[in-house]
Amino acid sequence: MITAGETFNHRFSYTQEQVNVFAQVSGDTNPLHIDEAYAKNSMFGQRIMHGYLGACVFTKIFGTLFYADGNVYLSQSMKFMKPMFAGREYEARLTVKEVNYEKNRAVIETNIYEVGTNELTTTGEAMLLNRQQFVNA
Question: pLDDT tens-digit profile of 94-106?
Fold first, then answer.
């Protein structure tokens, strides 16, 4: 049974090839993401990942890792605090903020930190519905 205060961490990274595929699938072919020469002359000095690609880790976690059986992803708020880069390791850190057992819903804080620097790159909050897992036993 899910409980308030519960945490879950998951490390991940993406390759530049995966960034390029995401650019094609999403249609966001901004050269900051895919053109090394262009991005080198940008304020970042290198290519950056799409913010939503970095945040895709949350749908992976909710769909396959964290109380995954039957989750329905109802909402997600996000703020992109720092750019993320291909080839670097990140850690998604989730904290269950509250559980409404009558409505089978949980509010979960969703953060991504760069491994090594511990800098926050993405912060937000998700709401999940799960009739099988979020019941008061």
Answer: 999 999 999 999 9
